[in-house]
Amino acid sequence: MGSTKQEKKKRREPMPPLKIWLPAVVAAWLVPGGGHFFLKRHGRGLLLFFAITATFLTGIMLRGVLFQPRTGDLLTTIIYCGGFIGDLASGLLYLLTIWLGYNQPDVAGFMHDYGTKFLVTAGLLNVLAMVDAYEIAAGKKT
Amino acid sequence: MPKISLSHFETALLFALFTSIVLGVVTKNTDRERLHYGLKSFAWFIFALFVIGWLMRLGHG
To answer: What is this structure's pTM?
Structure first.
């Protein structure tokens, strides 16, 4: 068992230097598809920009709620802190929305619920785009 | 920003479309594989939408 773990550790590839992938990942966080543009994958960057921005804007137009971190019992902490991280992952879309004064109160209604899910999903999709940008920058993917 | 109102089906359709595009773009290695995977994801989303929709309808009677 011990030797297998050591073999796995030996086989694990070293982390690529920060300066190789960090600019692409930061660009990918700030602007959906930005990391791909930075890495000269314009077609894929455009598709990601369109899909993630459209998801976020649909969430705003459905008047979804942007989460604020809140602690309490475990479920509350997971929902509100997780939702906040999901929203924040949209990068400039989220920051601009806050700076422009969007403040939708949490009211009942399935449209608002869908909107909230769209907003968090946009952030989670952007996380996938960030991971993809990292893999391209690190040379693990073309 | 204008406020829009969509049906359950329209909302789920938009969700499936945008999510499938991203999944297709980030998952595979060649453009052909990406297109194939994106279309497959979209088809599965729509399939699940109808199956779960009918299950809910039958469950509610």
So the answer is: 0.91
Cα distance between residue B25 and residue B33, in whole Å:
9
Interface test with B, best of A25, A47, A57, A131 (most B CBs within 10 A): A47
| Distance separating alpha carbons of residues B35 and B16, to the nearest angstrom | 15
Return left, alpha or beta for A119; rule: phi > 0 is left, psi -120 to 50 is alpha, else beta: alpha
Query: What is the 3-state secondary structure of chain B?
Result: CCCCCCCHHHHHHHHHHHHHHHHHHHHCCCHHHHHHHHHHHHHHHHHHHHHHHHHHHHHHC
- Distance from first CA to last CA of chain A, Å, rounded? 35
pLDDT, tens digit, 9 for 90 and up, residues A83-135: 999 999 999 999 999 999 998 888 888 899 999 999 999 999 999 999 999 99
Burial A3-26 (b: 16+ CB within 10 A, else e): eeeeeeeeeeeeeeeeeebebbbb
Q: ipTM surpassing 0.90, yes or no?
A: yes
Beta-carbon separation of B4 and A141 below 8 A: no
Tokens describing residue A77: 């902490």
